[in-house]
Amino acid sequence: GLVTLCFVVGAVMLRPDWTAVARGAVPSLPVHDAANYWFMAVSILGASISPYLFMFYSSGAIEDRWDKSYLGANRAIAGLGMTFGGTISIGVLIVAALVLATHGVTQVDDYHQLPLMLIPIFGFWGFVLFVASLAIACFGAALEVGLQQAYLVAQGFGWNWGEDRKPRDDPGFSATYTISLLLAAIPIALGLDPLRLTIFSMALTAASLPLTVVPFLFLLNDKRYVGEHRNGILSNAAVIFIIALGFVLAVVTIPLQIFGGT
After folding, report:
1. How far apart are CA 82 and CA 84, in angstroms?
2. What is the pLDDT of residues 119-161, one digit of tens each?
């Protein structure tokens, strides 16, 4: 994923007005097309708090036999990972704002428009860097989501599971993983727009947060499971607020997007 740092480098090379960038980072209410604005906000929220991560990460912890000694390392990994991802996202936003708008692209409707972001900065290599960034991100996400599906199904049915096992040792787990990857290719093969499909699926993810995250919230506050490492009041309040906000916005904006409301 380090190749995605090209967006940060590109943002610095463009020499933006950092004061204006800081002002733009302050949340504000939309002045037009409110439904689409909040729909995009919900999609970003769904991408940031995807329920599959809970199953994927916790299953990996069990498989690798983590104990309390891993808490510090995991906090560091989580903090650094979110910081890295946030920095990349900021770089993408700055580059998109400064490059696409100057080329007359005020709304991105297709993935084919996106390589334009880096070409004016890096020339031909900008195209290569963008394709590499997108390919690595999509490939990694596909493998993670497919693996999560295999964890979910195998654990639900009580099958043997584990990514380090050979297929003959956990046939159900391996078959579910393979089938998940194949099924994921069907919408694209049918010609559905991948960008719209991604955004819409993330909005649906936000709508499902109460069903998927709330049970974990109970576990994170259960002394029998986590002992002294229970969530604090602020952590619980933040999680509940984000889940409630995402759910309400998703319930309101998804129908508007489907039926063409504004």
Report:
1. 5
2. 889 999 999 999 999 888 888 888 888 888 899 899 999 999 9
